[in-house]
Structure formats: C-alpha cells, structure tokens
Records
---
Amino acid sequence: MTDATANPEGPILSADGVPLKRSLSRALRRQKLRALALIAPLLIFVILTFIAPIADMLFRSVENSIVPETIPATAAALGEWDETSGQAPGEPVFRALYEDLKVAVEEKTHTRLGSRLNYEMTGASSLFRKTGRRVDRMDESAPLKEQFLDIDKGWGDIEFWQGVKRFSGDYTAGYFLGAADLKDGPDGIESKPESQQIYMLLFQRTLILSVTITVACLLVGYPIAFLLATLPLRTSNMLLILVLLPFWTSLLVRTSAWKVLLQQQGVINDILVYIGLVADNARLELINNATGTIIAMTHILLPFMILPLFSVMKTIPITYVRAAKSLGATDWTAFWRVYFPQSVPGIGAGAILCFILSIGYYITPELVGGTTGTFISNRIAYHISSSLNWGLAAALGCILLAVVLVLYWLYDRIVGIDNVKLG
Amino acid sequence: MKLEYALGAGLALAMAGAASARDLTIVSWGGAYSASQQNAYHAPYMAANPDVNIINDESSNEAVAKLRAMNEAGNITWDVVDVVASDAIRLCDEGLAMEIDPDTMLAPAPDGTPASEDFGELLISECYIPQIVYSTTVGYRTDMVGDTPPTDICAIFDLETYPGKRSLEKRPINNMEWALLCDGVAKADVYDVLETQEGQNQAFAKLDTIKDETIWWSAGADTPQLLADGEVVMGSTYNGRLFALIEEQKQPVAMLWDAQVFDLDGWIIPAGLPEDRLKAALDYIYFATDTQRLADQAAYISYGPARKSSAPLVGKHAELGIDMAPHMPTDPANATNTFLYNYEWWADYRDDIDAKFQTWLAK
C-alpha cells in the first residue's frame, strides 16, 4: 500500500485519478445495462400484459369521470345548490341538465350514466332511460323543472340530487366504502344497513376457509410426501404419478366428481348408510356448504403442498434419523427433533402456495360451496361479469390484494421468506 | 424441412380460406341450444350463402362483460351475440349494442305483417331481436311426491306435503316474486310490494321458511342433475332443460307450469362494427329471425318462437318425432297462469335487491 492510493482523508482513487467507486460503478453500469437489455423483452412483456392491465383495472376502483363527463354543466350548477337546504335544486340546475342530456342522448351516454348512478341510488337507471326518450320533445322556452317533474317525480327527490352532487367529482371513494360495507350518506360515512353488509363477512370467510384448507392440505400431504421421499425410487415414482394425475385432470371434471361423491344420494352417503353408520333419513350434508368447499379444494390444492414438501424431503438424508435413533432417541423424538425441522422450508413453501391459491379461488367454491362456502372472489366475478359494476369489483380486488400483501409481509416476519424452499 | 412445408402449406390454405370465405362470429350458449341454432339457422344460411363461414363462440354467459372489454379495447371480434333480455337491456343502456329498426332490418311475416307487429310486445329494448320465449318453471320427481302431485307454485314452500330438498336459482329474480305470490300478494301487485322495504322483508321471510331445505343453483344444468339423482324433490330451471330430462332421458320427472316466468332469448349486434361486417350481420339476422326459421328451431328444442306468425308452423321434434306444440311454454294449456318478468323494474332494483339477497343467503 503506497501513499498515492492510501489517502485517509479522501476517497480511494484509481490509477487515472478518478475515485475508485465511480470508475467501478461506470464499469458495472455497462454490464447492468447489458443485463437489462437481455431481460428487456420479458420485462416489457410482463409490464404490458400483466402489470399494466392490473393497474388499469385497479384504477377503476376510484375513477368516476363518467358523471362529470356526461353532465358537466349540471355538475357545475349543482355547486351552487345547498344540499342541506331541504329543497330540490332550482331552475338553473334543470336547465343545465337539459343541455347536458341533449348532448348525452345524442351520444347515447345517458343510460350509461343511469347505470352508474343506479349502483348508488336505486331507480336512477330507469329515470335516465325514460327521460332520455322524451328530452327532444321538451319545450325549451318554458320552465324546465316542471317538465322534468312531469316526466318522473324522481327528479324532485332531494336525496337523489344529494347523491348526484356527491358523485359528481372525477374520483370517488364510493366503491371502496361499498367494499367495506360502508356508504357515504347525507350525514357522512356510515355503515350500510345490516341487510346489506356482506363483503366483510365474505373477506373473513375467505380467510378462515383458506387457512383451514391450507392446514388440511398439510395434514394430508405431509405423510404422503414423507412416504414418497422414503420409498425406493421405483415405487415412489409410480406413486408420484398418482399425485400428478389429478393435477393434470381438468378442474371441472374433478369438481363434478366431488359432486357425485358428496351429495346426499351420493357414493359416500350411500356407503355410510349401507354399513349402518348413518341413518337413511339423516344423510350427511357434505356439499353445497363450507364442508364441500373445504373437501374439494383440499383435494385440488393437494399437489401444491405435496410437491414442494416432497422435493425438500428428498434432500434430507435419512441417515440423520438413523443416527438419532442409534443415539437413543425414540421414533417420535427422532422425527420431531431431527427430521421435522429440516422439512420446515417445504412446509413454508407448500403452505404459502396453497393459501395464496385458495384465497383467490373461484370456480370450485361456486360449484360446491352453496351459500356458506363461497368466497369473495365469487362476488368479484359477479360484479365483473353480471352486474357490470367494475368499480366495486376493482375495489374488492384491491382490498384482497392488500390483504394478501399484508399477510405475506407477516409471513416473512414470522417464518422468514428465506426459510421457504421449493426444492 | 418436411415440417416447414407442411406448416407453409397449412398457412397458405388458411389464408386462402380467409380470403374466399367471410367469417361471421356468432356467440351463443353452447350445448343443446347452440345445436338447435346450428340446425335451424346456421346450416341453412351457410347453404344459401356458400361464401359465409359461421364461427360459433360459446361465450354468451359472459357476453356483457366481454363486449364491454372489447368496446374499451376498440376491437370488436363478435358479429352477432345471443343474450337474454335483461342482458340486452344492460348492453343497450351501456351503448354496447346497436339499435335495430325491426321494420326495415327484419323480415315481415309471410302475410306481410311488419316485424314490429309480429314480435309485438316482446320487443322490450331498442337493441334486441327476440328469438324464443323460454320460461323458468318447476320440475318435480313423480316418485317422491306420493299420490298428490303438486299443482301450483306454492308447493315449493309447502314442506309438510312435500318434504325434502328443493333447488332454486341463486339470485333474487323469480324467487322474490314466487315468495310474494305464495304469501298472498296478488299477481298484479307483486312489483309494487317488492318496491318497499316491508315487501322485500315479506319475501325474505317467506323464503326463510325453506332456506335450510334449499340448494341454490347457478348453472342451468344443476336442477336437472339434482332431480335425476333424487337429491331434490322439486326445483326450478328452464323449461327446455326439463323437456330434455323428461322426454329424452326418460327420468321420473314432471313439470309444473304454474306461475312459470317468461323470459326471452335473442340477438343483439355489437355497436361499432365496421360497415362490411355490419352488413353481413344484418343479412344473417334478417334470415335467421324470419317466421320459418324461428318455427324450425322448435323442432330441436322446446322453446317457443318469439313471432306470433311462427306458432302455427311449429312441427314435430326432429329426432323424437313428438309434437312440439304442447311442450312450448306459450302453449295455451301450459300458459294458464304465467308471470311476466318486469325487465324495467329489475333493471332499477337488481343492484339493490341482489345485494340484500346475497347477504340474506350468506347469513
């Protein structure tokens, strides 16, 4: 070490006098760029086909531009209106509404606005449809408020106008509130009436059932994986095919098979009645409820538990257990103190796979879940494909994503993600 | 090398095919229903227009959501879509289906009656061309009801005479109406009552009496399967599914036509099709919804044609050879007590009541 390079005051310099740190990072930058260029196609692909659509979909949970875009003048005129006055808006608002509707009917966007507002206020859909049909026959020179009220009394409803004013901004928290069983009423945020509180219940049920399914997978899968890992290769390979075979079978076929097995006149109940364990008039209800969901989903997710467990267990030398036994350990102690701790990374991987898959599962709960075994994803699917309330579906999806991320973080804190091994 | 040749030749063939034949993508429900359309509409249309190639897409179930997504992406790949009436109203409201003028775009009846009169009140939306009338009705196991087979809809709520499970659709529509009808509400008042909170509570209270004994279905095939397996003593489903169960599969099941709820199935054309595809779609619609074609479909499936002029032309089942007229939901003997489902009303109340219904179910 010479005086030229060892400068206790300043940074270490390279031969050309540039700080070593900078010249090193410059040399590395080119390498990093090259690496980036190599993964760029995949990165762009993932961003375009995966991240961007998801972000776009989730953005809908707050987006509300349809109201200010369809009735801009009305939204502005409503700013003047005092919603606490106890009176419906006056002529200026209705004149603005008339102008807005003329354009909207031309562009056929008024019914779309009606559907949007109907999510918040029952009746808005037909109000806009009906009014849209007659708007071109209205008399511009006469007072418009009365003509609107003639078409439908709904236009005089103060709560309706309060709602329109509340939802006249470009963004709304309404969907998120709805997803949390809350609503933005005239007196601020309040919970929905009990007869409409469903989402929190479903989130809770989704989490509880997912944990149950994961635990069931572990209890069933662990011995199987252990057997597979300890048997001679020939036999274990054959058994492994038995694990994989259902994995390759269509999901719908497997779910339908469970219907045949589990229903009250099904195979399992028939056998139980035949051997006299269950009376014929008291057959077990194994399907169309939470039990059905747990049984069918445990079966469907089992390979996701067995495979990581198996690949981790394969790497555990069985000689350790023998050594423990030769040193005086009982079978149980040898397993619990020596074998089991080494298989924990497999449990970690299997559990997180099963849990995250089951939390977003849709088709099986729909088919065998009845009313008490359905998940939040079934409601999300309903709002996407049937009610077209994509805003609410996006808000529910956001919450589900957030819950999963929080749980993942907790999992990392408790188990440690470094302790998870897929093989 | 050989493989490359084969690929190249295949590609060339495919391109040649695309160039000579115009593709027409028609979306429908699949299964027996699509088969009936294939026989009654698609096959004769392709025979008459050899340059048209009809592609069947079985996505009607999620048609509303997919059409919206296509519309947002600006790339509409469907030409004609088969949907139920409530979905057609939704699509029309959202501006996703184009408006149809029945008198200029559809064929008149053979006697010259314009299409708007021939379809009559079934033209429930500006965008909708109805094909068939189907009904949601109840089927029951003849061997599980003893000597007193049910004769009216309220048998569903009668656990004493007809113990056992029943199956109902996992949505409020139809169930709420039936509950009120069987709780003493007059048919004409059902929707007025259902508009009020008390009326909704009344319907839920009535449904509460059978909630534990009910399997809630979401796929049309569920009730037929449950009936065939003896899982339920009775259940609601579409009349065509029950026809297949009774007449084709010979199961010990009979139909209860009482208080059957009429619904429609028909075509919409997506909004925003380019000129040439629009012309092709309209040409197909003109052909496929004429009087004879609608009557033909009834030879393959037991749904009633939506045109008045088609009813006298309904013949025998194509394979079973039985007269189809007595199996139509619109047949006078079956239609003594029918319930007309109020589309406009449900368009308003669906979001609200569905939330309540699902909450009620989940608890």
---
Amino acid sequence: MKISHYLGIAIVLLAVNTAMATNQVTISADVICPIANSLTFPDQVLNPDITIPNTWNPIYTGLIQVGGCGPWSVSVTSDKDDGKMTSGALKLGTELQVKATPQSTGNSDGWIVPTTTAKRIAYDYGNYPEWFDGELYQPTAFTDVDGRYGMVLTFTYARTV
Amino acid sequence: MLSIRYVSGVIAFILVFLILTLGCASASIEISVGSILDQVSPGQHVAYEINVTASNDSSAKDFAADIYGFGQSLDGSYVELKADQDKSPYSARAYLKLDSKDFRLEPGETKMLTLEGDIPSDVGDGGRYAIVSIRPPTPKASKGVSVSMGIIIPVILSIKDTEMAKTGEISEIELDAPILAEQQNLSLIFNNTGNIHYRAIAEADLKDKDGNVLTSASTKPSFSSIIPSNSLLIKLVLSPEKKLESGDYTIASEVSTEDGEILAKKEISFKIE
C-alpha cells in the first residue's frame, strides 16, 4: 500500500468518527482524589463542539464519564432561564447521559416564555445509583445581537456530606 | 533500511491516533479541600486553608470565590444562597469570610484561600452551615454550547457541647394520579426541623381496611444529609403482589435517621373503585 492509501484510511476513519459523534458528545468530567478530601477536576470539554442550529428540536446526547472518590454530586445548570432538565441514571464509574434539546418555548414573535432554570443533579453514591435528569430543553430563540445561538452548561461539583 | 511502506504505515497510524484522540487531553484544577467539617466552640476563632492549583499544562484562568448560605433544593442538591436569601438561623455565612474572592491562576500556580471567622459567643446549639463556591466568572455564551465548571465546598461547623436535635416532619404526602390498582407511587416532602444535619431513610406500608400489610417499600439513606431548615422530596413505589381489589386502603409512611430513630410519620388513604 502506498502512503496515500493509509491517508485515505485515516480520512475515512475520521469521517466515521465524526459521523458517529454528530449527536454524541463527550463531556470530560472525571474526578479524582489525589489525597483524602481533595478533588481534582480536569477541564471540561465538549468533544465535538455542539452547534445549535436554527431548527426545531434537534437532540444532542452527551456523555459524562464519572468515577472515583464518591460520594459527590454534580448539578447541571444552563445560563438560560427557560430550560428544564428531566431524568436519566448515573452509577459510579458509568457514563452519564445528557441530552441538549434546543426547543422553542417562545411565541410566534420569538419571545421567550420563562419557565424554570435548567438544573438537575447527579449523585455518585458508590454502589447506589441515583436518577439523573439529563434532558435539557433549550429554546432556539436565544440569540445574541448577531443572531447567533449559544448557551453555557455549568457543571457544579460538591462532595456530599 | 526501513521500507517506504513501513514508514508510511507508521505515519498513517500516528495520524489516525492523533485524530481520534484530539481533544481528549485536558488540563486540570486541584482543590485541596473537598469539604470542611469541624467542631467549634462559642467565641472561637477558626481558620481553614483551601489551596487551588492549576496543572502545568493548563492555560491561565480567572476564578471567583465567595461564601454563601447553605441551601438545598428538593432533590437534595446544594444551593448557594446570597445574603438576602439566607434566612436560616443555622447559617454560618455571616461570620465567615474569605481573604480573596477574585484570583487568577497561571499554569502550575497554587492559590491559597483562607476561610476564617469568629464563632459568636451566643451562637446557640447544633450545627452551622455555609458554602464556599469557586467558579470562573459568569460565563458568557458564544455560538454553540460551551461548558463551565463550578466547585462547592460544604462547610459544616458543629457547636461543641451543645444539644444536637434531630427532628423532622413530613409536610406533604401524596399519591401520583391516577391512583392505580397495580402500583402506587408515593411522594413525601420531609423537612429537617432540627438543628443538625442527618441522612434520612423513608419506609411505607400499604394496608387494607383491616390493617393487613399488603406490601412495603423503603429507601436507602439519602445521598446527602438534609441541612436544617431544608426539605427533601422522597419517592417510594409500592407494588402489591396482586392487583388491588375495589376498596379502601391506607399507606403509612415514616422517616427515620440512619440510626433507626423515627423522626416523623404520616398516612394517606385512597380508594380503588
């Protein structure tokens, strides 16, 4: 095989990888405990980036890899006021699913009808899985002055007491 | 001499590896204290160090740290209460302070925050609670979805040699509608009316009109303690072996501590048509 063949394979693999990840994002959120009662958090990244399109109800599924040094909790909040979260499941060392679902709650003029702040919590409780609500409804009508869609998901960690 | 085929294969492998792992590498932040739990005396001066360290491979980051009242939502998650929201008599927020609220961490740098304060001489009984929050400045959305991270450090100070009152009440009890003959979904809202935190366990018995227990359900201890003046939503699913026949039924619920101390009881009756 020539090098072009290998490069061709690499490009195909990249395409497959990208295609598989289109609706599947990874949110890196490992927590480790270097010493007792201390916590280390890698920077969280969305991989790949999610772009919110100007369409109705596209669904993104994110995975948060959790593990180690429980019990701790993570709550997820949106910077927008009218998102909401529903539930999924989390167990120590397993993946946490988060769905970000841009969904208009505005009226025909595009105004937003405020509901509640998006917030749910997941618990790492050793062998005791807790329900995690990971479905985020995000209005498509949130745009900046340039018409760009955007939101920030904030993951807040705490060791439970 | 290496063949062109071997070299090209290695190059392609490296390319594939880099492509597939792109974005997986990440810098980290380390917090030296996950929680602060202490026993203190009235009039005592307290000081706690919190070291925040950025890894060498990170970029410079800005942080905002502050003290809040210790609130909880019904799902048990911790809520940062600002001064005007913090009405709890068991709050330690007002007499604790951080020596630094806004700081920047260069790669590899450690910032030591000091949380300190004076416990009032008339502080009273039980526990006192606060939250230290460390997070980047308020994130701004750009195009698409971005993520931000915050860290909450629970602060629990137990006042030495005082009465620790573990009390509580079930303020609400209800069954999900429609009420089914096959399964009953029970919701309780339990309030910690005491002056100290604890984990709660809930149990419920489904009884017929003669008081015979048809089935029972219980929870494991709550994932996190219930802080005084806060409430927890507890859900129980009762699944009788047989579909309930027409008649009157009662569900008797109780909430206890991990030690088995019963804190509250409440019943709800329903009818299957």
---
Amino acid sequence: MKNILIIGWKTLSKPSGYYSLGALVIGGFIAGIIFWGGFNTALEVTNTEEFCISCHEMENNVYEEMKTTIHFSNRSGVRATCPDCHVPHAWTDKIARKMQASKEVWGMLFGTIDTREKFLAHRRGLAENEWRRLKANDSLECRNCHNFDYMDFTEQSERASYQHSTALADGEKTCIDCHKGIAHKLPDMKGVEGW
Amino acid sequence: MKSFNLAVIASLLVLAVSPIMYSLNANAADKETVNSVATLRDATPIDVQKEPNRIPQVINKDIKKTRNYPMQPPVIPHTIRSYEVNKYNNKCMSCHSRQRTEKSQAPMVSVTHFMNRDGNFLAEISPRRYFCNQCHVTQLDAKPLVENTFTDMHSLMKAKAKSKEH
C-alpha cells in the first residue's frame, strides 16, 4: 500500500517527458468540462422531485400530503416541487444543504422514518429543522417565487393585506412565522409561537 | 313440485320483463314529474352519470353576517382551506382563542365554549366544543337549491304587532 502511494506520488511530481504541453492543457480542459459537468448534472438529478419521491418515506408521507395543498394544484397550474422549497438555489448554499442531506441518506439506510408511526414521531423535529432554516434565511425559498415588492394588497383579502402591509413589510415577521403547514400536515404545535 | 316450477318460471318472466317495462315507463313519464323532488342529480336518469355541478367559491369577505336567531352559531366569513383541526392542532384557535384575539383582532370564541356540560367554566375550550366545524361553516357563493322561507322572530313579532293595530 505504501509502495503504491510512493509510486503514485513520484509519477505525479515528475514533469511530463512524453506528452506535449498543449495535449496536457487541452486534455485537462476537456477532462475538467466532463468532471465538472458530470458533477453538476448528478447534482441536478438529485434536485428533482422524481429523485426525492424515489424513497417511500418521501412519497408516502410528505408528497402524499402535499397533493391536496395549493402548492400542488391551483387555478393557474404553477406548482412547486420538493427542491423549490427545500433546496436553496444559490450554488454554495445548495452544496451546504446537500452535505446536510447526507444525514437523510443515513436515515434512509437505517429506516429512521420507514413507517408512518416513526415518521409522525419525528415530525415535530423535522418540521422544526425547516422552520429554523426558513426563519434564518428570511424565508428565501418562499421569496424565490413570492416577491413582496410585487404583491398587490388590493387583490388580497382584508386580513391578508393588513398582515402583509404591517408585520411583513416591517420585517418583523417572515413568511414562515405565519404560514406553517401550508404544504404538509402540521406536527403537534404545542408551545409554538402563535399557536 | 309442479307449483314450485311454475313459481320459478313466473319469477324469471317477471325479472326478464321488468327492465323493459321500467325503461318504457321512464321514457313515457315526463322527466320533470319523475324528478319532482329537488336533488343534486336534477333530472338525470338513474343509469346516466350526471355532469357535475360547478363547485362554488367560498365567500372570503371577512364581513360578519347577521345571525338568523340569537343562538345561531355564527358562520365563517373567510376561507378555511387546509386549516387543521385535529387532536394535535386547532388552527382556528390560533386567531380566535382568548390569548390570541389581541394580536389577531378576531372575535373570541364565546364563553359558552369554555363550559362543560354541567355549566362550569373551564380554563380552556371544552373538549365538546373543540371541533369548530361541527357548528361553524363557511358560506358558498351559490344559488340555494331550494327556496328558504325562514322568517326570524323579529320579523314575526313586527308582523304581529302590525296586525293588532288594524
């Protein structure tokens, strides 16, 4: 094992005696495109709803619940998929979230929530993770579609326009403070502010 | 044995003929009279799938409606789509509970909701009043299927007083 490493290092540290500099540069460039492109393509594949609901934990619990909500079916036919709300769009944030998600792979392998009962038992903690994330980034994933600057308060109901033009406009509250449980069922809300 | 055979033949005959008789009858009878009772199916024959009615919109104006009699549970003047009321949560109470009304400016649930069946007041909503939708409902922007001739007490008393004057 040690010998292999030494041979490898010796090969890498020596200058190329056979390939031209041009071949190495162009070859490196093409290899870079393939690896980088491949990496991002693989990343995007994990960023689709089909990928998310390929695990029954997601398909039978959260996806099934989402089907009845306005983010799945509505008058204009625009719908949100899992990554629209649960994965940040900016690249660095996305990578950070993907690294966190490795814990979800662990959970899938060891069946942390592989029955409805186990899922319900974990629901409060899982929901709190998402509330915390959205609270910390000022509901960024909501705001990717719902832009405060373009809200027409006159089109909103009286209560909605009042809340949006005061608490939301001041920055005192963010979307998730009031709009909990809009896409999935709620956990036991005992002790949550506003409940 | 013979009478049994006869009975079997007779009943088979009736079974075979009755659908024909029925369809003849249904065709002959005026559809209006067949379906004179107001139903959600209107005059659609029994063997036809009815074209579904348009689903009306929930009225979302936040304007209180007059109660038809003092004890009437007030109707909900806003949409309650996906409001959860179950053993874990009661979404209605996040605005209408005693503690939340200052923030929400929503009407508080009446004191009767805090009473148990012996008339004693509890600190929280009584479990028998927990499920709001048992009494309180939203209103739809729809034409009533049947005419409503309900007259409230106030109008009745007014009419009576008027008739006494004469």
---
Amino acid sequence: MILEAENISLKLKGKLILDQVSVQLEKNKITTLIGPNGAGKTSLVRILLGLLKPQSGTIHRKPGLRTGYMPQKVHISETLPLDVKRFLCLSYPRPQHSHLQAVLERLNIADLHNVPIQSLSGGEMQRVLLARAIMRSPHLLILDEPVQGVDIMGQVKLYQLIRELRDEYACAVLMVSHDLHLVMSATDEVLCLNQHLCCAGHPENVTRHPAYLEIFGQFSGLSVYQHHHDHTHDIHGAVTEQQNHG
Amino acid sequence: MDDFIWRALLAGCGIALLCAPMGSFIVWRRMSYFGETMAHGALLGASLGLLWQLPLTLAILGSSLFLALVLQLLKRQQLLATDTLLGILSHIALAAGIVMVSLLSDLRVDIMAFLFGDILAVQRIDLWWIWIGGGVLLIILRLIWQPLLSITVHPELARVEGVNVQRTELIFMLLIATVIALAIKIIGILLITSLLIIPAATARRFSHTPEQMVGFALLFSLLSVGSGLFVSWHIDLPAGPAIVLGAGSLFMISLLIKPRLPG
C-alpha cells in the first residue's frame, strides 16, 4: 500500500465538500477519480497531497513517500524568462544533468529543452509537466486532469504514456478526469465522486453502475450502457432515496 | 571631485546591486504594490525612530515588517482583494508618517529627504550599512534562490516537492523590508519601488533565463544611478528623481530596440 486515506471529511466555509471518503492507492495500479464539477475532486487531491487538512479522517502514507504531482492549471507569467530545461531543473532536489536528459528523451521532449515555457502548446506543456512529476522517480504520481487542452490523438498517446510510466517506475497513479471513455481504458480502478464515493471498482463495472449513470447519464451520447439508479442526488448533492429499483 | 560625490556613487552602486535581483523577483511575483506599501510604512518607522531615538535603519525595518504582518493577517480574512488592502494600508501608513513627522517639528526633520532621498548627504556609516547589510542580504537571497524561484512558478508544486513555502516567503518579505530600509536614504520612500522594478522590467526583453534578467537589471540600475548622479551634479537636480528618470529613459529606449528572443 502506497497511501491509504480513511473516512476523509472536509467542510469549507460551512459547506460539506467531502463526506467520509476512503481511498487506497496501490503500487502498479492506476486509479481514476471522476465526478462532475464541484464534486470535490480537486479538494480530495489536495488532501492526499498534504496541501489541505481535512476536518476528520486519517491518511497513512508509506514512510519516505516521494510524490510526483502534475497540477491542473499552470500559468507562468510572461515576465519570467524560463525555458523548459530550467523549469525542470526547479524540481527539488535539483536533478542531475544526465537524469534530466534521460527524462527529456523518455518523454520525447528533448528538442523542446530551450523553448520558453510560455510558448508551449497544450500537449507539449502537459508532457513537460509530466516530466517534472517523474523527475523525482516517484512512488506515487498524482495527475490532475492530465489530458486537458490536448487533442484526441494526443490524449490517447498521453494515456498510453502514463500506463508505460506506471510500469517503468512501478508507482501508484491517481488521475483526476471528467472525460469518460478514453480514461476508462487506461484505468485499473475508477472512483466516482460526488461529495461521497458513489461507486468504485473496475471501469467496466463502474460504467454499469447505477450511480455512475445517475451522474453521467445526462451525457447519454457518451454512455454505452443503460441502467437504473439505486440512489439519486438532490440539487445540493445529498443522496435521496431511490424510487424505482429495476 | 568632492568626497560626497564618491560616497553617493558608492552608495548608489550598492543599492543597484541589491535592487537588481530583488526587483526581478518583485516583478516575477507581481509584488510591486506590496513593496510600495512597505516603503510607505517606512516614513512612519523613521518618525517613530526619531521620536524614540532608535537607529533609523532598524526603525524602518521594524515598521516595514509590522506592515507586512498586518497585511498577512488581513489577507486571511479574504473579504477584500489584496490590491484593495494594499491601497488602504499604503496610504494610511503614508498619511500617518507625514502626520507624525509634522508633530515632531521641533526635531527639524527634512521630510523631502525621506520622500525623495538625499543621496548627496550619505555618510560613511550609511555606506557600511549598505555594503555589509546588502552583502548579507545577497547571501541569504542566493541561499533561497532556487526554492523561491520554484515557488514563484508554482507554489503548490513546490510544496509537494518538499519546499518550505511559508518559510521561504517569510524570508523574502524580510529581504524586501531590508532593501527598503537600506535604500530610503538614497532614493526615498516614494521612489524606491521604481528603482526595484524599472530596471528589471527593462531587462525582460533581453533575457532568456532568470539569471540573465538579473544581470541586465544590474547593468540598467548601474547606468541609471550613474547617469542620474551625473546629471544632478552638473545641473543641480534632486538626485533621487534624476536616477528614476535615468531608469525611465532606459526603459523607453529599450522599447525601440528589437529583442533577440527566439521565435
């Protein structure tokens, strides 16, 4: 076990954001966190990263845990002259030159090393951020919306790359996503979050799960399976009893 | 040439050496209003220092830090945007400083010297403060350079990677207060931020790395101090504003030069 969080609850400004959420992250396993906007995905990630303290619940981390983090939105001010190589060198502790070179080549971004970070395309930027995350040879990779701003072919490749990196570093991976199909194929376990954990399990089972369809069913064009609900959410996200079991 | 012009030049070069790296960080971190607020607090500090007969540099340091602390506390309330808070604090501090100085009229304080600096009145002791205090400041800045740069790019990423964000930011705030306390005699409360940000802003167009930007900022600061002093010596202008105009002219000229950036 790399990280184990139990019964995490979070309230911000009197509003319940997370309700008794438990997560286990294991070596060699890719876990994907999905859920609608405002479901608490980012808050949960911040708690697991240690950036935010929950009101209740416990988190056990493997001793000496090194985490590689790929943040969601990175906007670097134009006023700071910074190329890709220098950005990666900011990783702490500062990487050796040979190691840096190896990571650049592994992610196929060696030719970008002297490009100003502000002029990267969406896909290039995501690769650079991923490079920064694996620079520390992490035990745990946490990727917040890793394919954001990347075209569809690029997304497929990026998910493939993440799977390969999981094998090479033998690390646990936690991804946040609100894209459904592509991410499913790249995932070992899916956690469907809407304040509480609605359902969890293997992607195929989750996509058949009623709670999943309750949340994502509105995107029916994207949903492959047709299902009944076992509970529904009111406008505040609280669980309301299910009316008709199928 | 007279002794005092050499002292002025030495003091000015020392300040330029401090302002180049500190100003670059202030530009990168968008903290120029913050610097200005701390500078305004310095007048209050200076007048309290005169009243209680404390060393001026220490009094100014104390008041700038006090202001920074108040700002941090107000920011936690999250009711008002930081620029609004800075605007409120900065002007209260300036007004309180001016009121204090006028209440202390029997101390014969030259308020103009505080507001715009009096580089030609620099004493030997001021030079010691600038060069030794400044040297310590630069060593500390060198030590936190890498983590501070990392925080400037992305604070949360830095924190996940093990950088002590709060401590580093606190040290940087202390350094800003120190630069202000050291530079006030030279350039004055109202103009200190300009010497911090104008040379750094001018340097941006010519730089590919953070360190290069500091190098160019240093070059432009030295040129500003040199040209400002030269002009004020020859046609008898106030030195502080002349230095700022020198920096401003360099900035304007730089806009005409095509930058050598890739792409």
